Every structure is written in C-alpha cells, then in structure tokens.
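Build the 3D complex.
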Amino acid sequence: MADQSHDAVIRCEGIWKVFGGKPQEAISAIQTGGLTKEDIRDRLDCVVGVRDATFSVGRGEIFCIMGLSGSGKSTLIRHINRLIEPTQGAVYIEGRNVNEMGAKELRAVRAEKMGMVFQNMALMPHRNVRDNVAFALEVRGVPEGRRREVARRAIEAVELSGWDHKYPDELSGGMQQRVGLARAIAADPTILLMDEPFSALDPLIRRQLQGTFMELSAELQKTTVFITHDLEEAIRIGDRIAIMKDGVLVQIGTPEQIVTEPADDYVAEFVGGISKLDLVTAARIMQPLGRYEQNHGAADTASWLAAAPSDKLNALVDLAVATDHPILVVADGAPVGVVTKSALLRGIQGRDESCQRQAEVA
Amino acid sequence: MADRFDWLNPFASINLGIGEWADGIKGWAIANRAMIQPLKTFFESVIVRIENVLQAVPPMVMLLILVLIAWQAAGRRVALLVFCCLMVLGLLDPAAWALAMTTLAIVISAVVLCVLIGLPLGIIAGKSDHFERAIRPVLDTMQTIPAFVYLVPVVMMIGIGNVSGVIVTIVFALPPLVRLTSLGIRTVNANVVEAARAFGATPLQILFKVELPLATPTILAGLNQTIMLSLSMVVIASMISVRGLGNEVLRAMGRLDAGKAIVGGLGIVMLAIVLDRITQGLGRSGRDRGHRHWWQTGPVGLIANLFQTSADKEPKPRGERL
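Done.
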C-alpha cells in the first residue's frame, strides 16, 4: 500500500461524513457500539453518508465507485474537491491536504486541478456553450482570447464544433452532457470527477458518450473518479472499481477481481448477472501444466492450440470451438497451464469448480 | 382600583401610555431636523434636476423616446400600446403631460432609491435565513401600516415637499423588491451554483456570474411591483405637497370636481400601464427572446443590422475555411 500511495494523485483517508446535529457521537457510537445506519438515524437523528472510506487513485487511473442510490457515492466524490467537509478524515491531492487549504488555495485547486461533470449537467442556462466551457478559465481571470481558443479545442474534443454560440436549452441531453465534459476538461485539470455523468441519458446515447469519454480518457490520461450505479458501465470504464453500500466501501478491486472474487453476498448478487466473457482471463481459470499432467498423464501438447494468460474467455471460446483438445496457456514461450472445456464452461458461468484460485502468472 | 377593574374587559382599565410614548418620536424628529437638512437639500436638488430634464424635453420627443424604449424592451405590440396610452395621457388635459412628467420624476427618484436599498437587502436576505427572518416582519409592517401613520413623523422631521414624498413612497414600495430579490436568489438552481463552486468561483463571482443573472426575471418582477406601488402612492404623497397628477386628484376631491379627478386618475393609470408594460418586457428570460441579445432586437437591432456587414455577424461554424 505504501508504495502505491506515494504515487497516488488522490488519497482519501478514513473519511466519515455524518449529517445531523451530533456527528461525533454518531461516529463513536458506530465504532464502539456497532450501531447500524438505522439505529443512528432513530436514536441520534443523524444520517451517515460515508463511513470510514479509505482509498487512493493512481496517476492516470480510472477509479469507479459503484453503488445504488443513497449509498453515499455522490457524497463521497464531493469530498475530493471539498464541496462537502468531512466529519472526520482527510483528502490529499498530490500529497496536499485539501481540508487544510485556505479558501483561495482551494479555489485555485478546484479551478486548475479538477474538472467535474454532474449527473444533471448543471450547465448555466444564461451562458452559451462556449462561455459555459470557458467558465473555469474565466473565474481564474484568463484573458478572453485565450479562453476562446481553449474552449474551441475542448468543444472540438467532444465533437460539438459549430455549436459554440448555442444555449444549453437548445441542445439535447446527450449534447448538454458533452458540454459538461468539455467544461470539465477545458482547464486541462489533473483530475476528473464524474458524478454519474451518463445516468440521465438514454441507453444508446449513454454508450455513445461512454465511447467518447473512453477515447478522451485514453488520449488525455486524466486521473478519474467515476461514480455510477451501473456495474456494467463501471466494468467497461474502470481500471479499478469500489463497491459502495450504505456509506461503506465494501470491496475495492479490478473488474476481474470484483466479478470473480466478490467480497460478500451483496457484491456477489451484483456481479451475478455480469457476463464474464470479456473480464475473466485464461490465467484465472487454467490448471497448472504440472497438475494437469499428474491427473491425465503426459499430454502431447504440440497439437493443442495456445493462448496467452491475459486472453479473455471470449478468445478462449473461439479457440475451443476450433479444437477437440484442451487449450494450452503459454507465457513467454513456455507452456504454463491448461484450460479444459469444463473449466472454460464453468468460468463463463462464474463458478470455478475444477481449480482452486490460481496465483497470478507473472 | 380593584373594584373598578373588570376581568372580562381588562383592556379598558389598563393604559400603558404607548400613544404618548410614540408621540415622543415626533418630538425627537423635530429636535433633530437640523441634522437631516443637508441630506434633504441634496435629494431635493436631485429630484428637481430629474424633473427639469423631463420637463425640458418636448412632449412629442419624450413620447417617441418612451415608445422606442418600449419597442426595445418589449417588442412592437407593446410599443404600439405605449404610444396609444401616452397619446390618451396627453389629450386628457392641456396640463396633463407636464403633471405626468412631475409625477414621473418622483416615481423615478423613489424607484432608483428603492433599487439602491432593496437590491442589497434582498441579496442578503436571499443568502441568510436569519436576516430573512428578521426582515420579514419589518417588510410586512412597511406594506400594511397605513401611510398616514408615518406621514406625520416624516413631515415633522423633513418637512413637506418632494423629499418627504419620495421617502413615504419608498416605505410603501420597497418590500416587493426585497422579497422578490430574495426569492429569486433562493430559487436559483442549487446544482448550477454547486458547479460554479466546483470550478473555483469566488462567492462574489457566483453572485454576479450565476445567481443574479438567473434571478433577474424574478428581480425584475419585483421592480415592476415596486414601480406600480410607487405610482399608487402619488395621491397620498400629494397630501404633503408633492405636485403632479396626484395633487390634481387631491385638489379635485377637495372641490368635489369629479371631472378633474377622473382626468388626474386616468393620467395615473396611463402612466402605470406604460411603466408596467416596459418593465414586464424587461423581465422576459433569455429563452423567451430566443436567446438574442437586447442589441440584436428592436430599433437598436434594426439600426445595427443596417450598418453591419455580413463579416461581423455571428461567426459561422468554421473548419472548412481554415
């Protein structure tokens, strides 16, 4: 953890947020008495928004926070740019404690280091697209000519060229959110905070915007915190995913870890319906070559088709239909494991019956 | 004492002397007259100057200016209506136009002062619940207390004339502007304000770049009400020797001259319609106007279009030309 946090752009340490009159009492009651969220609400008239959230996001990483509505994910993301003050805990942006910043320093960080996209777009209806996009630059006193230039490029990046002088209410929902995205990237921030940016859009436009976002993200390499209530979206977009429930970060891991090793029943129920085809790798479902040979005797692997450990199940299925033999997993030219058809089918189902959890292949 | 005290009607035998105490305000006002005089002369000269300007403009020129303003602010139909109202006003009586300009000068002075006082108060009330709670009963009092009650102390302190008239008008006309400014600030979409904060705007930038522009239609509705209430005060104000259309009505009442009263009254109504339509036109939101700037419509837009070459017009999507 230590070496990861030193490269972390965002580091949240033990964040608690309790709304209501007696937040400190509520925290100690939970920590010592093990009270639930409902107990706190009934006895202390406090609402627990976020409960002891600790995570860090590395440079260029896309970190998804997934949870149902009311799980506290929007509250959590607002701690990163301190739109909400934590009851306890601290947020560090590139090593600097956001919660100890003065008002001026905080505004500078918000305008220059962070761009935020909102679920409800939150565009300014009295400003045209260009002036909306250039807002962060305008509040920093960037001269008009430069502002126009930057805004033009950001608008181009989200494929809205030619709409500069339109007003938000003249745009469709999807286009409005493109403006929201352009506004967030205009000041070239280090960090993107995306608060359910695509949730309010219809499925087709959502996929389109996800595509735009992923292209932009690959190009710009922004450190991103992405909130969503859609696990498939989290898996599509996220490098790592945190599952949030009742203010608690239940599990943090890569999409593959979340899907194959759910931390509890809640997560397991969530990931149950998710297709493993593009998530699970050969490395996870294969049997080491040694154990296979112990069970089945030496095999003539020369005629078997080969796959790489990082190949997804989808690719393995393509191989499997072309051969009657098991599939050989080859890493750096040396065979390391075997994927049998039953293991493949179980892998697609999401159950691994044949093999115990395998150590990751280097 | 006890035998005459009636438990069923205790109020008849209790005298706290509030009336006498309140009368002390009058004494205090008289005692402090000198302090107020420099301020009074200053405001008096401002009002007189406004009136002189309005009177100096020939009626037909003034009529044209008002019609053009109406066209700019609210469109051609309203401009036509304003033209008709002003013609009626002028034709009511040979003296009516001059009286209307006097009244307009008082109303303009009162409204300008209302804006200077009411807008900041409304903004504070919109931001602070405490202040809103504290100021609400004061506003209620200002709106409901009969004008005659504060007419006397004001006259005692300042004397009769235009300045007192303006002050009395402000007391009555200020509350809606404060209330609606506060309402406008409070109803600005919180998400937009949050977004402005997230992008590093200072509180003042949020106020001037987000809250006030979005609250403008509501604030202008308040301004409209303030103007209407100012006009409705002109008859009462004329009791403390404010000249103009109100004075005409008051004098006609004294002489039971119904005809003159109607002339004065109709004049006030015509003036009210004109001011109301113009300020209502201002209050339309950008969306209603099709997102055109004010200089792109009305007479100004017409003239601007004449002088504008096609190159200066709204830039077209570029790309191919580069």
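The CA atoms of residues 26 and 153 of chain B lie 5 Å apart.
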